[in-house]
Amino acid sequence: MKRFFYVGITLSAIVFGSLAATAQVQKGKTRLLLTKQLMGGLVQPNCKAIGDGLKEEPADDKAWAALATKAALLNEASYILMADGRCPDGDWAGATTKLREGSEAVYKKIEAKDHEGAQAAFKAMTESCAACHQAHKKK
Ligand code: HEC
To answer: Which atom of ligand 1 is nearest to the CA of 103?
Structure first.
């Protein structure tokens, strides 16, 4: 009887363990936001807007300020990616660090109104997207 009990405990630990592993990539443990929603609603629109906005030299202070807002929001997204048990492994954590440091570099170049510097920093930052997607986004 006792032996069945232990086998049962071990089996349920394996089942719950693997459920938690899939849940962590697509969602955190307690909060609502799906990774898909985080990407589609916050990460992708701000990333695209920065890329588009830096194609030409931003026209005025207002245009630079709008880009700074977007870089700061991308930086914030890097904290959400690491929160609530969403991070499954070192590939995820490494790509998120790249996104955090990359968006900070973009932000600083935008603050300095350095157009070419901001373009280069933006290009480097987008390597973080590919790095995480290669490891964790289903094709
Ligand atoms: C640390 C991991 C990670 C990083 C960094 C990351 N993504 Fe994602 N992204 C994912 C995962 C995981 C999915 C798949 C989510 C799902 O379908 O459950 C995804 C999906 C997406 C999608 C598809 C959303 C949809 O509606 O299906 C887009 C667009 C996207 N990411 C854009 C970006 C961009 C742009 C960047 C860089 C600025 C980025 N991502 C950085 C993990 C990441």
So the answer is: 38
60 CA from centroid of ligand 1 (Å): 31
Enter the CATH code of domain 2-136: 1.20.120
Record the pTM: 0.88
First and final CA of the chain: distance in angstroms? 46
Closest CA to 64 of 49, 55, 73, 53: 53
Q: Which stretches does DSSP call E strand in 1-139?
A: none
pLDDT in tens, 66-107: 999 999 999 999 999 999 999 999 999 999 999 999 999 999
Asked whether the predicted pLDDT for residue 121 surpasses 50, the reply is yes
